[in-house]
C-alpha cells in the first residue's frame, strides 16, 4: 500500500511541491538562524584561537570573557615560571584603547602586546611582513582580512590603511609594518598587535597592566598538577584554550540578548513552518478524504491508513528538510564571502531534523484524526 | 438445496436510526429481505427512502441499530472494527456512483488496490489487474489515468476493481447514473455477465429504469421499508419465476 500512498502524495504536483516548500521554508529558517547564532558564538573565541600557541592561560578569576582582562601584577609571569612542569610563561597585554587615522577618523581598537623577547602569542598567519618586524620602531601589525572595513579613512577618500601607513594610538604614532590573517571575530574592533613593552607605552599607565600569562607545559608534565600548583602559587585561575573559549561563549550567550533574539527567530521559524506545513498537509488529507473513505470501505484498516499518512508526511519532511538545510548551508557559504557569521556544526542539522520530523508528525496526527473519524459510508454519497 | 437458492444475505427486522432524541431519523424501519447467492437484486425507490443506507449496512460499512443480519454467514456489525474491515476487504466488492478512482493511479493500479489490501505482491496484483481490465474491454487502457478515460471506461475500471479479488457479494450504488443510456447499458451488461458467470451476488441501488431488465428481482423501497419485491426480466436463477415474488425472503 505504500506505493499507493506515495502516488497519492505525488499525484497533484502543485500540492506536493507546496507541501515540500512549506517544510523546506521551516527547515531553512531553523537551520539558517541557528547557524548564524552558532557562527556568532564561535566567533567569540576568535582571539583565543588566534593566540592558541600555549597550553594554558593564567588570569584573574574575575575575567568573564577574552576581551575582559583584569590587570595583574607583572611579577605573575615570573612566579609562573618557577612552577615545576612549566616550560615557559610569557606575558600578554590585551585591552581596548583609542586610535586616530591620518584623516582624523577616530576609532576604538583592541591592542595586543606580545612578549618582546619571544613574540609568542602572535597571529598564526602573516600576510605581509614578518612577526619579527614588530621589533622595529613604533611597529604594529594589522588584520589584513578585516582592516579594509575597520581601518577605513572615511574622510580620506574611503581608503583603508595598509602596510607602511601610520596612525596614532592615544596620540602616539605607530607604523604598520605587516598584516596578518585573523579569524573573524564577534568583537568588531580591529585587533592591532605590537610588543608588550610598546603596548604599555601606548596606553594610559595603570598600577597593574598584565592581562594574561600564556603558559606552555613541559613535555610529560601532569597538566592537572601544574594547574593546581600555578593557582596555588599565584592565587589566579588557569584555563585551557577550549575552557577559555567556552567561558567566553557562555558569557556572550547568557549576558547579551543574542541567544534570546536568535532563539525567537528560530522559534518563529519553527512556528511558521509548523503552521504552513501543518495547514498544507491537513488540507492535502482533507482533499483526499474521499479516497481514504473508499480505501476504508475496500478493507484498509485505520492502522494501515495511519501508516500511509505518516509515510506521506515523512517523505515530505525528508525532502523538505534536505532542501531547507541545503539552502541554509548554501546561504551560509554565500554569507561567508560577505563576512557574516555562519557555522553549521552537526548538531544543527540534527536538531533541525528532529524539529522538522516533529512538525510533520504533528501535521500527520492532526490529519489522521479526520481520517479515523471518517465513516466509510461517505463513499456512497454521490 | 439448490446452490442458487441459498441466501447470501438475510435480514430480518433491520432498522437504522441516525441521531438521538427528537432529532432522530429512522432511515430503515424493519427491513426483511433475503438475497440469494448469484442473484442480481436491484433496490429502487425515491431519494431518501433508505436504499444507500441499506447497502451500507449490508456491506458492513455502517452499523445497524437493530434487527438480525447475516451476510455471507456473518453479522458484520458483530465483528470488531478491524476484523470487519478485513472481512469487507475479502468478501465485498464496491461500485460507486462517482467511481471513486484514485486520480493519481493508472487504471491497472486502481484495479490492483483490493489485491494490495490483501497483501498480494505488487507485480502479481498488477498482472491480475491487467487481466481483469481485459475482461472489461480495457486491455488497451491499462496505463491510462482516470482523467484520460471516459465516464463509461472509468466505471468499467471500477467494476474491474470491484471484482478483481473475487468477492462473494458486490454492492453497486447508482452505477449508471453518471452515464448515458448506451454506455450505462454496456456497463451493466459487463457487470451482469461477469458476476453471473462466477455466481456472485450483486445488489444494485439504482434510479435508472432503463437497466431494470438486468435484475433477477427488484425490491422497491419507500420510507425505510421494502414495499414490494418483483421478479425482474433478467431472472434466470430462481427455481420458478412465478414463485419469485413470494419466495424466501421476499416479504414486502
What report would you give on this structure?
The complex is a heterodimer of chains A (382) and B (252). Chain A is α+β, with helices and mostly antiparallel strands and 382 residues long. Chain A has two domains: 2-43 and 257-380, no CATH class; 73-235, no CATH class. Helix content of chain A is 51%, strand content 18%. In chain A, strands 1, 2, 3, 4, 5, 8, 9, 10, 11 and 12 form a ten-stranded mixed beta sheet that branches. Chain A has a two-stranded antiparallel ribbon with strand order 6-7. In chain A, helix 1 packs across helix 11 and helix 2 packs antiparallel against helix 12 (347-373). Chain A is elongated and about 95 Å long. The two termini of chain A are 26 Å apart. Chain B has one domain (3-244): P-loop containing nucleotide triphosphate hydrolases (Rossmann fold). Chain B contains seven helices and nine strands, in the order E-E-E-H-E-H-E-H-H-H-E-H-E-E-E-H. A six-stranded mixed beta sheet of chain B has the order 5-6-7-3-8-9, with helices on both faces. Chain B has a three-stranded antiparallel beta sheet with strand order 2-1-4, covered by helices on one side. In chain B, strand 8 and strand 9 form a beta hairpin. Residues 236-252 of chain B have low confidence and may be disordered. Chains A and B meet through helix 1, helix 10 and helix 11 of A and helix 1, helix 2 and helix 3 of B.
Comma- or semicolon-separated keywords:
heterodimer, A: 382 residues, 10-stranded mixed beta sheet, two-stranded antiparallel sheet, 12 helices, 12 strands, 51% helix, elongated, B: 252 residues, alpha/beta, Rossmann fold, 6-stranded mixed beta sheet, 31% helix, globular, disordered C terminus
Specify the biggest β-sheet of chain A: 10 strands, mixed
Q: Supply Rg of chain B.
A: 18 Å
CATH level-4 homologous superfamily of chain B: P-loop containing nucleotide triphosphate hydrolases
Low-confidence stretches of chain B: 236-252
